[in-house]
Amino acid sequence: MSTPSPTHPVEGPLWTLGELHARAEAVLAAQEISPESGRVRAVPDERTLRYYTTIGLLATPALLKGRKAYYSRLHLAQIVAIKRLQALGMSLAQVQRELAGATPAELQSMAMLPEDLPEPAPAPAPAAREFWQEEAAAPGPRRFAPAMGTWAELAPGVVILLPPGTAIPAPALHALSRAALPLAAELRRQGLNPQADPFGGTHD
Q1: Mean pLDDT of the 145-171 span
Q2: Who contacts 18 (Cβ-Cβ below 8 Å, separation ≥6)?
Q3: CA–CA distances in Å: residue 23 to residues 26, 86, 165
Q4: CB-based contacts of 74: which residues, under 8 Å, 6+ apart?
Q5: Looking only at Cα atoms, what is the longest distance across the chain?
Q6: Could you tell me if 185 and 97 lie in one domain?
Q7: Number of domains forming the structure of the chain
Q8: Share of the chain above pLDDT 70, in %
């Protein structure tokens, strides 16, 4: 079992990278901070935050527990400070120079984080599907029927749909009707098609 390994002094709550991203999104939205350049993300995603760490813009995780990394308020201040400077039109290289050597207190001041942080927006619930949009789970391979085509009644209540433009000669139709007799009989046994025999007579 791994032991939590603090990488630097930790104060306050800790968050996973995803939770840190959500916190940053909430703070940036509350402070209405948005970079002028359309090429710069308003809120850095998790991949961007990892990149910030590799180039030294974002401190290493506050705590490592196994393969899990946890981040603190200091990291949140760094992200907000980065976005504040980018909102002034600074490039990432200029932001790096501006923040180089900044103390935690200076970062907190630059980010202007409130004592009580805004809560992240709840994750949107998956859109509910109407019941007629639900697909029934059926065993075996899924079968598709053509939406249009040539209909042929093989027996009363027993119809097949062939590809559009299919011509059915009379002998072929007669042979198909004969072949459909077992199906028609089974449908009658199941009470699904109590129809007369197409070739004469009725069946109960």
Answers
A1: 71
A2: 46
A3: 5, 18, 62
A4: 59, 62, 104, 107
A5: 98
A6: no
A7: 2
A8: 70
Cα–Cα distance for residue pair 167/85, rounded to 1 Å:
74
Virtual CA dihedral for 59, 62, 74, 90, nearest 10 degrees?
Answer: 20
Specify whether 57 is located in the same domain as 150: no
83 neighbors 70 (Cβ within 8 angstroms)? no
CB burial readout 62-96, b (16+ within 10 A) else e: bbbeeeebbbbbbbbbbbbbbbbbbbeebeeeebb
- Span 67-86, pLDDT tens digits: 899 999 999 999 999 999 99
What is the chain's mean pLDDT, rounded?
Answer: 77
Instruction: Kindly list the distances between the CA atom of residue 40 and the CA atoms of 78, 138, 168, 201, in Å, as whole numbers in the listed order.
Output: 16, 47, 64, 80
Integer Cα distance of 111 and 81 in angstroms = 5
The predicted structure's pLDDT at residue 99: 93
Residues 6 or more apart in contact with residue 61 via CB below 8 angstroms = 7, 69, 70, 71
Question: CA 119, 123, 29 angle in degrees (round to 5)?
Answer: 45
Q: Higher pLDDT residue, 16 or 194?
A: 16
Residue type, position 121, single letter: A
Tell whether the model's pLDDT for residue 98 goes beyond 90: yes
Domain carrying residue 87: 5-111
Would 130 be classed as within a structural domain? Answer: no
- Grade residue 33 by pLDDT with cuts at 50, 70 and 90: confident
The helices-and-strands tally (H runs, E runs) of the chain is 7, 5
